[in-house]
Amino acid sequence: MYVCICNQVTDREIHGAARLGVASMDELAETLGVGTCCGQCRDCAKQVLAEAVSCIPVDQTLGRASTHAIIERRDEPVANDQAIVAGALAA
Questions:
Q1: 3-state secondary structure labels for all residues of the chain
Q2: Short-list 81, 75, 79, CA closest to 31
Q3: In this structure, are strands 9-10 and 2-4 parallel, antiparallel, or unpaired?
Q4: Could you tell me the pLDDT band of residue 57, with boundaries at 50, 70 and 90?
Q5: Which family, according to the similarity comment (predicted)?
Q6: Model pLDDT for residues 34-53, shown as the tens digit of each residue
């Protein structure tokens, strides 16, 4: 289900972010943009994130994963990225 309509973020994406180490609303807002527009989704997103984090076993030797993995992945080009298309046409 969609949690954040403004940024088209689903509960599955929030669960995925939690598996990669996102554990706070600030981190969720930074990585997925949840709650950064109208703010109506913040309560629901907070609940979904808490549920997602509680389902993840914490490895006592490694602790929580870094959020850098999510930030780096957001910058990867996607299939319909206009910069890629423009670069391919120029070559």
A1: CEEECCCCEEHHHHHHHHHCCCCCHHHHHHHHCCCCCCCCCHHHHHHHHHHHHHCCCCCCCCCCCCCHHHHHHHCCCCCCCHHHHHHHHHC
A2: 75
A3: antiparallel
A4: confident
A5: Belongs to the Bfd family.
A6: 999 999 999 999 999 999 99
Tokens for 72?
Answer: 């780096």
How many whole angstroms separate alpha carbon 32 and alpha carbon 51? 17
pLDDT of residue 46: 97
Domain boundaries, the chain: 2-57
Model confidence, pTM: 0.64
Evaluated on CA atoms 26, 28, 31, 33, the torsion sign reads negative
